[in-house]
Amino acid sequence: MKIFLKIWRQKDAKSNGKLVDYEMDNVxxxxxxxxxxxxxxxxxxxxxxxxxxxxHDCREGICGQCGMMINGRAHGPLKNTTTCQLHMxxxxxxxxxxxxxxxxxxFPIKRDLKVDRSAFDRIIGAGGFVSVNTGQxxxxxxxxxxxxxxxxxxxxxxxxxCGACVATCKNSSAALFTSAKISHLxxxxxxxxxxxKRALTMVAQMDxxxxxxxxxxxxxxxxxxxxxxxxxxxxMNWEFLKGNVLK
Amino acid sequence: xxxxxxxxxxxxxxxxLTGLFLCFFLVIHLAxxxxxxxxxxxxxxxxxxxxxxxxxxxFIKAVSYxxxxxxxxxxxxxxxxxxxxxxxxxxxxxxxxxxxxxxYSRNMGILGTVILIFLVFHFKDFWYQYKFGSLPVDAxxxxxxxxxxIRAYGDLWYVLFYVLxxxxxGYHLLHGFYSAARTIGVYHPRYVAFxxxxxxxxxxxxxxxxxxxxxxxxxxxx
Lengths: 247, 222
Hints:
The complex is a heterodimer. By secondary structure, chain A is α+β, with helices and mostly antiparallel strands.
């Protein structure tokens, strides 16, 4: 396949970037999107150009490192899929593909398609943990947590922190990410002790990180590779309300 | 990173609570307006009597102040939220994010502005007229608001403007109702599913109920 690329190139955080045109011949439909990017970079390196920088790690859809805006959609045209799990068979011969970094005030661009998502780490650092040392993992059957609750908490915990929720949100809100962690811990007995305080401190940190308001458009749930439910946001709102009233 | 007085969540609570109060008000307003569908003589007596009853009641007066406050707070808060979001939002060269959400969810501000413009005319033509205008008096000695309503809907353009505004309101409610429930923290899937269905029916009934009134009057009286 022949593919035309328009890729955001930006030298560093301070410079202005722009879309640069590239052409790729012989793109194999079985290639993953990142393999196509690798092939492009190989070409660029051989011709003495600086390769297009982008984040990636496991390339099996579980680490949350990769993430680009592909043809105006977070992680590309498929729903609930990471960039690395997108394959070139989703495109046609002769297609033009726009590739941009995840954009948000809370995610400053470092270079090309690489963005600084450390805001997420600081949100987790503000309360996304259990303060006491719980020691070794105990015998699973001895923990009084029902199957339904365990499953539900795990669904919330499944967030891989890729940032697609922020990238696709028209307000660049980090509500889905923050709420997934608040909900995960609020559902389990280990986390419930600090649930109210956690909701307040994590929301405060989320606000301090330059993210916008959640306006419940639910776009985040569609793009989230883990399909994290927007109902986590409802639970965050509830925990935050409880925390404010009962503190 | 300056500290804001209200958190992003608190601002949304304010939106949700004022919005839900306005939703409640719309039900009462529509129920009262249904009197306009009665046969003319009966409608005139009933509607004017009802208007008199409401304007004289101290409890209703208190609620009306909450209503005015809700409209103002809902609008100002919306403006604050929108401007704040605009500053934080990422801007793309090529943007197809609209494919994964509803257009009315993304354009609540525009729909709200249409409603606000409508409200200016609505208040001017009925609320202001009733409170400060010189109205004819009906057989029972009440201010004849019914007559004012009938006269207003004689103009087709005015009727169309009302119907258009009601559709803007309908889409605003379609998003607003469930969004408000989400914001105040209704997270159980069973209640959420109920609210979705209830909110949709609510929006339909309010939209078509209010839109039917000017159309009914236009086609039966003119």
